[in-house]
Amino acid sequence: MPTRFLTLALVPLAALALVACGDDDDGGEAADEGTTTTAASEDAPERIVSLAPTTTEMLFAIGAGDQVVAVDDQSNYPEDVPQTDLSGFEPNVEAIVGYEPDLVVLTDDNGDVVAGLEAADVETLLLPAAATIDDSYDQLSQLGEVTGHEDEAADVVQGMQDDIEEITQSVPVPDGPPPTYYHELDQTFFTATSSTFIGQVYEMVGLENIADAADADGSGYPQLSAEYILEQNPDIIFLADTKCCGQSAETVAARPGWAELDAVTSDHVVELDDDIASRWGPRVVDLLRTVADEVARVPAG
Amino acid sequence: MIRVERLGVGWLAAGVAAVLVAVVAGVAAGPVSLAPFDVGRELLDHLPFVEVRSGLTDRQAAIVWDLRLPRVVLGLLVGAMLAVTGSSYQGVFRNPLADPYLLGVAAGAGFGATLAIVSGASTDVGFVEPLPLAAFAGALAAVGLTYLLGAAGDRFRSPAALILAGVAVASFLTALQTYVQQRESETLRDVYAWLLGRLSTAHWDEVRLLLPYAVITAVVLLAHRRALDVLSVGDEEAAALGLHPKRTRLVVVIVASLGAAAAVSVSGLIIFVGIIVPHTIRLVAGTSYRVILPLSLLLGGAFLALVDLLARTVVAPAELPLGVVTAFFGAPFFAVVLRSSRRATA
Prior knowledge:
The complex is a heterodimer. Chain A has helices at 13-20, 53-61, 93-97, 113-119, 133-147, 150-170, 197-204, 226-232, 249-254, 262-265, 274-278, 284-297; strands at residues 48-50, 68-71, 103-106, 124-126, 180-184, 208-209, 236-239, 269-271. By secondary structure, chain A is α/β, with parallel strands linked by helices. In chain A, the strands form two sheets. A four-stranded parallel sheet of chain A has the order 2-1-3-4, with helices on both faces. In chain A, strands 6-5-7-8 form a four-stranded parallel sheet. In chain A, helix 2 (53-61) links the parallel strand 1 and strand 2 (68-71). In chain A, helix 6 (150-170) packs parallel to helix 12 (284-297). Chain A is globular. Mean pLDDT of chain A is 85; it is low at 1-40. Chain B has helices spanning 9-28, 36-45, 58-92, 105-118, 130-154, 159-183, 188-195, 204-223, 225-231, 235-240, 245-267, 273-284, 289-313, 322-345. Chain B is mainly alpha-helical. Chain B has one domain: ABC transporter involved in vitamin B12 uptake, BtuC, CATH 1.10.3470.10. At the A-B interface, helix 8 and helix 9 of A face helix 3 and helix 7 of B.
């Protein structure tokens, strides 16, 4: 049986191509498999398990959906994904191996699952949370290469780049200072700064983040004081806690003191889809479009 | 030997002064700098029959009246409840390490809150927020269960049975809560937001919810301050002195649990206050419950309100989790208590 290890955390693509074709350990019954040609589609994994919503979305976007046999319990897009009760937070190696995968794609090495899968001779591809949009493109390319869908992956990346270009071009440049925003992660006012992936999406359309001053430790995800949010009076409030925590424009307006905010009085509280706003797959374009539409509604100055 | 210490006027004045300092500092300071004079006038304006222009904008006024003041008041109430219930438990159980969560209040509240979040009940925009109510119900149910188990065991002859029952109930409910939480992992964030102790989202609603229980708890526990002193010499001696140890213990446990449950339901888990404050008072002011209980109310409230002030100003405009700040002071203190309690109970 060929032992192939493929544990990556954003390694250069060249290294990936080398490893992806597989290392034989010669002692196997199926030594004919895993010849040392370049990664070709007959070599491509046929039983992929995806343990994270973002990797699931990426796999399906690049046309590798047919090779995916199981996805984790959080993967809910696209609609027809083979959702199982596998968990990416508390992964169970035995349960994963039960699906007889030849590739497991995941975003977090929780509970040393990668080592566990390696011990069980299962290839893994670790694609941690993207820090920039370029990381997203890289991850799509990597997945394309590993699954034998290089061309489709390149098309998806090109499509995203074109869409993003078009959307950012369409956003009017404000005369005065840029509009400010607050991106809410939960109702205790955890938020994301400009240095995060999501923050860069907002930056693409010229928005200014009110949380940047609060990130002394550089985590990117500080918890703000309610009174600071009131003082800053952001032009737009984006809620990324509509699904997890049931927040809405209505609940925001009902918070004591918040009714005075310009974003509330002038109807600039945007209810985002938590899922889209927390994943770094192809749907980041949808998020950008929502944000851009909102920016277009904000009066200049 | 019964201690006959009384609460000296000096200590009472110090307690009241600490509360005043906490209120003034808590309302005057914050991540947003407002002129203290304007803040004062804004507060005066809210008094009946007083009309003053504070010079603050509507949003600044909202910061003072809707955010800062309820947060300070809630900090006072929660801190007072945790400290006074902690010291009462320490008294009735004659255990220096007893805290307000001893009988499963925290685990019960956590389980109740998790159920409310998972079932979606927490999202209602209604007159009453369902989440604290669910936490409160869970906390009371947990204490009820603890009491049934502990009392069934050996009819309260030894308070240890009740403490052990509390450990069992807390472990069981924590297991249930973790299970539910994991089955519904999309609600994880919401559950954690609740579990970690916090005053950062304090509103008048929570003050209104906690206040009646806080008043009842404070009054009843203070009324038992002499009984707790008598109990501290042992059940037989207390009975010889004309006290019903079981009945007294039952009343104190029920009322303290009510107060602890109400506090935890609005603030989540805030640890160490229920231990640090009573023991500090024992060390510096006296070991009679006539001293400990009233000072616990005052100093517990002042302590938590001031710690919360640190939590929201040290890294402003970001917040530190309240639990981090209390534990930062609490953990070293806890070690000292452990060391000295070994002597006391040997």
